[in-house]
Amino acid sequence: MSRRIIFAAAGGLLGLAVLAGCGAPAEQPEPSPSASAAPTPENSIEPVATPEPTEPAEAISCETMISAGTVDALSSAGWTSEPKEFVIGDVELTAGLLCFWADYSVGSDHGQLYGWSPITVDEEARAQDSLVAGGWRREDSPEGIYFTEDPQYSMGTDDAGYGMTYLFGDGWVKLADTKQGLVLIEWAG
Length: 189
Description:
disordered N terminus, 9 strands, two-stranded antiparallel sheet
């Protein structure tokens, strides 16, 4: 009887070993490296992402430079814009735009001025030198470098006493008829 128990136990263990072997793949030994074997690249089953085509950037214009709400307010008042050359001293910024908004149906000097342009380091230095020579005041700030005209010669000032003001940033310059007006220029290039 003890032989039967031993054989039954051995048979049961053999059956369990077979069943356990069926559930998991057997580990294969890693091949030993040889001097002539070249590494094989792993195949990727991930598809290569193709970038989505982007819309071409909207061109700068008197209507795209400032906020849509500002354009609506000026247009509702009967004002239209006239693009002008953006010049600071002897620096002509041909890639930028200066816009004068006014009611051109009446003779008046009342209007609003907005400008934006990319600017090189050399152009920026020459433009700022020109502003300093013209008596403009410089203020350094976290937003950039402001240059504002002397208020006693200004045609109009904002609540803080600033008249026409330039803001020089990293590779760009903005202009508005007041410092507060600069916030209406949303164009970033």
